[in-house]
Design goal:
The protein is α/β, with parallel strands linked by helices. It has helices spanning 13-22, 77-82, 84-105, 138-153, 180-191, 209-221, 224-227, 243-253, 277-282, 292-305, 309-315, 320-330, 335-340; strands at residues 2-6, 26-31, 48-51, 67-70, 109-115, 121-127, 159-165, 167-169, 193-196, 203-208, 231-234, 240-242, 258-261, 271-274. It contains 13 helices and 14 strands. The protein has a 7-stranded parallel beta sheet, with helices on both faces.
Length: 343
């Protein structure tokens, strides 16, 4: 199978290249390169590696492609809130451009990286894929909008699968420390504090970045009739955590660290628990390889093995918002960033 992965030089994309190639698939990657130069290791390389904006993808480029895995996006709430217009332009508009182009080119499968964050402020109840959407950020709203528009595009011969990913964590050669688990561990390593910015009471489903990549591959390989039109939560039923529970796990691994809570901390409005029964029914042989408990010690060793990790973390090397702001200030981003920001 020939697969196009957009955003293949991202946190999850770095694993997706490796996962698909290990299964014998040919990978074409398209990435704008916003985060080139801030790697944490040696990422896998796509068979065909293209540096370009997803808006420039043409039907001719997709001839012979069997599946599109669309990861490219403004990828978290702080980045999304920097300029909601840019977020919606990239996350909804960019998604629809790639999907329409794939459909025109005759690509039979389109797999979209959505997010469990679309459930938003939901409290303690367990949510399945039929639950109401209550997004609390521009990022989550952009995913809701993209899902709705993709449903209108789907028809026989063009199967769309929407993967609602839990909050990612874990080691990657394109590391991010602006994700809950990774961030708590990074603070523990850097300043010996497991630093909670909220009161830690909110619920969040968590899944390892490599398991997300594996889920994309498994769904791309599944019988098309099983996954056409499917919206499925990605994660495990045992992996719904209150953030303070994650802090305790990190505290246990980083001996001597202290759990601290920011002054005037309040509950995080992103508060939801999720059911993954549909994933288990759709892919009964698929099992997650990682848990928070198994991943944190591996990440800890990786952080410690990098001599300048604390300085890099504090400088924002692995924080996507910091990198994006620096690129915007330097003018090394697409023109529409400045245009949409009214500059």
């Amino acid at each position: 199978m020939k697969v196009l992965i957009t955003g293949h030089r991202g946190y999850i994309g770095a694993h997706a290249i490796d996962v698909f190639q290990a299964r014998g698939h040919q990978v074409m990657g398209v990435d704008i390169g916003l985060y080139d130069g801030v790697e944490f290791g040696e990422p896998a390389v796509a068979d065909e590696d293209l540096t370009m904006d997803v808006f420039d993808i043409t039907p001719q480029m997709l001839e012979g492609v069997d599946a599109v895995v669309h990861l490219a996006a403004i990828s978290n709430d702080p980045m999304g809130d920097l300029d909601p217009a840019i977020t919606h332009h990239i996350n909804t508009g960019g998604t629809m451009h790639v999907a329409r182009t794939a459909k025109e080119a005759g690509v039979p499968r389109f797999l979209f990286a959505s997010s469990c964050s679309i459930y938003g402020a939901a409290g303690d109840k367990i949510l399945d894929e039929t639950a109401e959407f209550t997004p609390v950020s521009a990022y989550a709203e952009s995913k809701v909008n993209a899902e709705a528009q993709l449903q209108e595009l789907e028809e026989e011969g063009f199967a769309i699968t929407r993967l609602r990913n839990s909050t990612a964590y874990g080691q990657s050669p394109r590391l991010r420390t602006d994700l809950a688990v990774n961030n708590l561990l990074a603070y523990a390593v850097s300043i010996n504090e497991v630093k909670l910015m909220s009161d830690g009471s909110s619920w969040r489903p968590l899944v390892h970045c490599r398991d997300i990549a594996r889920a994309f591959c498994a769904l791309a390989e599944a019988p098309i009739e099983k996954v056409a039109g499917l919206a499925v939560n990605i994660g495990g039923n045992d992996d719904n955590y209150q953030i303070r529970e994650v802090a305790e796990i990190v505290h246990e691994v980083v001996k001597g660290s202290q759990i601290t809570i920011a002054d005037k901390a309040v509950p995080d409005p992103r508060n939801y628990r999720v059911s993954f029964d549909l994933l288990n029914q759709t892919l009964p042989e698929f099992e997650l390889e990682w848990s928070v408990q198994s991943a944190v010690p591996v990440m800890y060793e990786g952080y410690l093995a990098r001599p300048d990790f604390a300085a890099e973390f504090e400088a924002g090397r692995y924080t996507r918002l910091v990198t994006l702001q620096a690129r915007m200030a330097a003018g090394t981003v697409p023109d529409y960033f400045s245009r949409l920001a009214g500059k």
